[in-house]
Amino acid sequence: MAIFTPGLSRSQILHDINRNSIISTRVQTALGEVTQATNSLAVKAHDVNNNRDLDTLRSLYHQLDIDPTKPPHITWHSLERVRPFVRDSNDDSLEVSAAVDSFGALIAVDAWANSVIYATLVLKSQLAYWESINSTTLSRLLYYVQTIPNRLLRFTGRVYQLATDWTSLGEVAKKVIHQDFSQINRVALALQPKDAWHRVRQVIKLPLVIASADLRRRIHDIETKIDHNTDIIDKIIKINDFSDTNEVLATVEPLLDINNPSPMQSNRVLQVVDDVEDYRYSLPSELQVTGQLPFLQRWWPVLLVLVWYGPKTSKTLQENWDSIVHWVKHNLVDTTVGFFRNWVVEPLNNMFSILRQDNDLSITSRDSLKSDMTSLERMLLDYAHDENISVTPEQIHQDILKGDMTMVMSKYEQEIRTPIKSLMKGDLVRSLLIQIQRSKVDGAIAINGIDKLIKSQQLLFGLVSVSPSVFILYKLWGWIFRSKPLMIDGKQLNVMCLRSLNAIESYLVQASTGEFCEGDLLVEVINLIIISKPFIPAQLVSQYVNDLNEISNPSYSIETKLRLVQKVWNMYGPYFR
């Protein structure tokens, strides 16, 4: 759980803490003052040819990478490098020894404060992790299954320690079980109905009850450690003058449980340096205790299933490999290829052909209407000639275009009065055939009109045919590549940012009522700066960090800080939603 935000290592997080902590800022200011005083000591030692003091200061500057013309910069290794000088400072002059002690005390308190802040940030991440597990029934049940082996080992160990002989194992086991279960929630057990149905329900819910009790204990332990760390940070923030080594030591020693400090300042500083160094190197193991379960403990159910069913499943896969490949090819590969080829590529090609004015789309042959009309004109012209009707070819052509068949219909009306006679003469059949040809021409004209309408809307039909496939591809592309909420250890990062910003405002609101811990506020501000990095645009990062750091400035009033929080909500809140 040391890495609680994406892409950041422990050193990067410590760098962000050092850059944004008000403690580091004040320590840097005090180091600048100490450096100026030490520069004067170096000049004085050079003037009086005090080579011992001059060599000590020169070596100190070299080891700490201090440029006399620039503000000093503390690194992770500064504490290790200053320790030999603090240890041997009793051999130097009083002024040089005091300067070395000042460097050692300031570097130690800065390193310790940054380490405590780092530990608190990790603990907050762990707290969110365990709270998310405790929030759902499925997560609690999974946690119970994961911890079964450890519970059995602890139970067996307790029974073995309490049992006097083999015959007493059963009684001891019952006693241990009763003690463990009665400690889970004694009030709930006392108020529980005693009928059989409720006892059965109690047994069924027992795994969840055990897991909930264990998770609440973990959460309580983490919250206790967070409160302890923020109290340490709060006391360090309230140091009035960091350049006063005695005040720094007087504040830090009780926090490090140094009950009997040495009367010599150098020894006191050395003790603080050693304790801080021990704390830094023991920190990873301490954080691991409250972190996630070990890998094997988390994944043993999955590994057990793989060991139990893996060989048989592998053999089955090997024996049916060809069928599996065929199924995948037929149902996935061929379906996907067919979809792209028939419903994406081909409709797009048709639409592009339309845009290139390729008018192949048609429901009639090109010269069908012309040939039918020409045939009808010849039939009417022959009919008029045989019936001695005076008419010109141009008149017949115009009548056909208008749909006027008066010449034939008037004769047809006379013929149907004597249908048998007209049928025997053949005139009635001829009239009927002419009307059939006329109906064919009318149908061809109607179809030709529809054909023209279709040709005028070819682009629309092309777009309609390609729209479903393009819509499906668009939705699929959006589902795959759209920005999804960032998740870290099962926690949604933007929700964590909103909770952190809300916590900052809550601390300040509580401060207006009296109780206020600067340590809580500083840790929450640094936490928000670190976890919100993926959301804030690069152009606003500098202004955003400055606005948040102003909130943790002790010189501002609570009202001013609340206004700054409101500014952050208004300016940067939308990036977290």
Quick take:
The protein folds into 5 domains: 191 residues, no CATH class; 67 residues, no CATH class; 74 residues, no CATH class; 89 residues; 87 residues, no CATH class.
* Share in helix: over 70%
* Class per helix and strand makeup: mainly alpha
Could you tell me the number of beta strands?
2
- As a whole number of angstroms, the C-alpha radius of gyration is 45 Å
Give the integer mean of the pLDDT values.
Answer: 82
Strand order of the largest sheet: 1-2
What sort of overall outline do the alpha carbons produce when their principal axes are compared? Answer: elongated
| Strand content range | under 5%
Transmembrane segments: 459-477
Keywords: Membrane, Mitochondrion, Transmembrane, Transmembrane helix
Protein name: Nuclear control of ATPase protein 2
Subcellular location: Mitochondrion membrane
Would you kindly provide a written description of the structure presented here, covering whatever features stand out?
The chain has 577 residues and is mainly alpha-helical. The chain folds into 5 domains: 191 residues, no CATH class; 67 residues, no CATH class; 74 residues, no CATH class; 89 residues; 87 residues, no CATH class. Helix content is 77%, strand content 1%. The protein contains 25 helices and 2 strands. It has a two-stranded antiparallel ribbon. α5 packs parallel to α13. The longest helix is centred in the first third of the chain and has 41 residues. The chain is elongated. Keywords: Membrane, Mitochondrion, Transmembrane, Transmembrane helix. This is Nuclear control of ATPase protein 2. One of its GO terms (cellular component) is mitochondrial outer membrane.
